Amino acid sequence: MDEIAGRLNLTYTVQSEPPDGQWAELVNGSWTGMAGQLVRMEKDTVINTFALLYDRLSVMDFSVTFSTDSYSAVLRLPPPPPRWLAVFYPFSGASWAALGGTLLLLAVFSHLLLIKHNSPVYNHKLDVFSTAIWVGRVLVKQSVPLVPSAPGIRPFLMSWWLMALVLATSYVTNIIAYITVPDQPRKIRTLEELASSRHPLQMSDYGSFIPGYMATSNDPVYQRLANKLSFLSEYDEIMVEVIHNQAAIIEGTAYMDFVIRDWPVKDLYYVEEKLYPYYMSWAFQKGTSWIFVFNRYLRQMTESGLVERWRKEVVARLDKSKKSSQNSSSQHRLKPLTLVDLQTSFYILGLGMLAGLLMILIEIFTNVQHNDQ
């Protein structure tokens, strides 16, 4: 506006906030905030980030669009899973269940195949438990010193050992990758996921069109989001809800950066899918005849990149004054591996020693029973 005023040699005054503190919402047939002042001819133009909407076109005129924006949801990253559970992370729960079921079926099948020919896998009485241990030992890369002589057992073992080699190698490589590469928490990426999640939605009550549009939308996802939405008057109250109660804040995407940049936490992320993308324009009183003069300059400044450059300069000044860029970079620096990252290896070592001790005790017990008999 300063640039246009200098070109046209005009003076203007700016009102920083409407008397009612609202933006531009249609309530019971009356416009609030900046739109209300424009409709009542109390102001000549709105130079804020004003969305070009269908229901506003009937009561005011708009300039050419100079930018685009949308509404976004921002929430806190979920806490990372406990590192000591990394032993189970290389495979999903379904994979572990399938592996356990496969081992059980293989043990029963091998037992039925071997007991028919009285061909034990160890030097004692043939039983299902011993067969299960014998079948599963290849998963921990323990060789088989003796193959039973039952017919058909060798082709069966060849197929199983090949499968076990793939499983064991996959487990080792996956757990190495998990230990050395930080685990990425699962993020909400779509509005459908946000609507189905347990996260409440919070928004500042300043008269935005978003709540009404979501509540009257034919899209069931927007309706579910509207049912979860609640309003707070201050952004500090919303910050507390987001940080401590796992709420999500909904705000204009461009303005969201200014809202959250001073928050004490940095582990925040945007939901990828946006709400109601829209064009931004200046608004004028209905029937204004000199809009074309502003349109010429707005179009030139937009196409030349001045609008985007000025926006970046504002952000850069804020970053410099708040030193947020330095704080942000220090929060996201790469960190060396610590004992916390490597504790899974010690857990596996401990489990292996416990399993070995258990096997020794079982062998001693069975050997004593065999000698007594």
Task: Write the topology of this structure.
Elements: H1 2-8, E1 26-27, E2 30-31, H2 33-39, E3 45-51, H3 54-57, E4 60-62, E5 67-76, H4 93-115, H5 128-136, H6 153-180, H7 191-196, E6 201-204, H8 210-215, H9 220-228, E7 229-232, H10 235-244, E8 248-252, H11 253-260, E9 268-270, E10 275-285, H12 291-303, H13 306-322, H14 324-331, H15 339-372
Parallel strand pairs: 6-7, 6-8
Antiparallel strand pairs: 1-2, 3-10, 4-10, 5-8, 5-9, 5-10
Which terms would index this structure?
373 residues, alpha+beta, 8-stranded mixed β-sheet, two-stranded antiparallel sheet, 10 strands, 14% strand
Distance between the termini: 101 Å
Q: What letter string, H or E per element, gives the SSE order?
A: HEEHEHEEHHHHEHHEHEHEEHHHH
| Helicity range | 40-55%
- How many beta-strand segments? 10
Characterize the main sheet. 8 strands, mixed
Pfam family, one: Lig_chan
Subcellular location: Cell membrane
Keywords: Cell membrane, Glycoprotein, Ion channel, Ion transport, Ligand-gated ion channel, Membrane, Receptor, Transmembrane, Transmembrane helix, Transport
Membrane topology: Multi-pass membrane protein
Describe the structure.
The protein has helices at 2-8, 33-39, 54-57, 93-115, 128-136, 153-180, 191-196, 210-215, 220-228, 235-244, 253-260, 291-303, 306-322, 324-331, 339-372; strands at residues 26-27, 30-31, 45-51, 60-62, 67-76, 201-204, 229-232, 248-252, 268-270, 275-285. By secondary structure, it is of the alpha+beta class. Among the domains are: 90-182; 344-373. Strands 3, 4, 5, 6, 7, 8, 9 and 10 form an eight-stranded mixed sheet that branches. Strands 1-2 form a two-stranded antiparallel sheet. The chain is elongated, with a radius of gyration of 34 Å. It starts with a helix and ends with a helix. Residues 98-353 form the Ionotropic glutamate receptor C-terminal domain. The chain crosses the membrane at residues 87-109, 160-181, 345-365. Its main location: membrane. Residues 2-76 form the Ionotropic glutamate receptor L-glutamate and glycine-binding domain.
